[in-house]
Amino acid sequence: MQRFFNVxxxxxxxxxxxxxxxxxxxxxxIPTPTATPPSVSLLTETxxxxxxxxxxxxxxxxxxxxxxKGENQMNTLLIQRDGVDIDLSExxxxxxxxxxxxxxxxxxxxxxxxxxxxxxxxxxxxxxxxFIVTGDGDNTENAISITITVEDAMPELTVSxxxxxxxxxxxxxxxxxxxxxxxxxxxxxxxLQDGELIDxxxxxxxxxxxxxxxxxxxxxxxxxxxxKEITVKTTTEVGIQNYTVVVENxxxxxxxxxxxxxxxxxxxxxxTGVLLENAAGNDPTGGINLYDGETVSVNASNAHVIDLGNxxxxxxxxxxxxxxxxxxxxxxxxxQIDAGMTLASLEFIEQVKTAYDEAVVLxxxxxxxxxxxxxxxxxxxxxxFALEVKEKGVNTAGLGFYRFDxxxxxx
Length: 411
What we know:
- By secondary structure, the chain is mainly beta.
- The chain has helices at 2-22, 334-338, 349-358, and strands spanning 39-42, 53-55, 60-68, 74-81, 84-85, 91-93, 96-97, 103-104, 112-120, 125-135, 141-150, 156-159, 164-167, 172-180, 186-193, 196-197, 203-205, 208-209, 215-216, 225-233, 239-249, 254-263, 269-277, 287-289, 294-296, 305-307, 321-323, 327-331, 360-361, 375-380, 383-394, 400-409.
């Protein structure tokens, strides 16, 4: 019995070994067929992007996608930005908003399609856009990518007028600004004084006080504005206050414009139609007392501005004036004329002093021939005056005369 068992066992082992050998790893496997993937490209046509490109901020990315099936029909179209699926709200196909991303293909589009696609561009900088088509049921896909560079859009901000405004200390001054977005919406506006943000409650915009600074722009203002009114509460200091208004767009790009508010002490007095006549023959109306705007004798000790009388031969009126009794006169400068300086523009005594300091010194403290519209400044014991010639002529007695309007800035 024992011997028979051994022969039978050996026979079983030999059959098992043969079976195991026949099930070993095949060193030359038969290749598994692979489906041909679909194809995709971006067509080159006028107005469409097909390769790496640079566009301006606010522009859309326009491409013409051309795709064809491979071995099997196509299934989906997917667009990614830097490897992330783009939100469907940023895509339109053939002029209609995208229904999904990826977009499922139907009908003839599963075999081939050429679609116009408009994509909302990213913020300024570079981004990689990838267009992916997939096969239907065979796990195949194909893709094409382009790099789009979006240029930064520079907003533009200007202040209307010459950027100079006058106000009393602790009052308010209004100014107007103009903003151009250059296709990227505005976000905020800020006001700074001497480089520092001021409190929001010092700013009003279109009559509404801001609660913060910077403050958000709303409504139509985000797409630009013309002569937008901004009012700023000035500080109580007397002098020149320098301000900057800054606009920022939704991409964080800014532009700024400067303006100046001059605060000061109100003008003390304005005298109008003050008479000054030819001083020839010691005329009693040949001088002006600047402090009270009264006509006085050319020989009076309080005649601060005098007429210079006739020529040396005594035959003709010189038509010139001069300073006397501590009065020094200067003529308006070309720069002041270009800036549009008038008596009405002088609201504060500090302005009159500054204007005198910047005016033109006269030889021997005497003017050239005086004409209507001429503008002079005077200093008497560190008090300052502005004089404008409003009238010039000859009276019924044959005597030449002028009439002045005078602003007094007494310190």
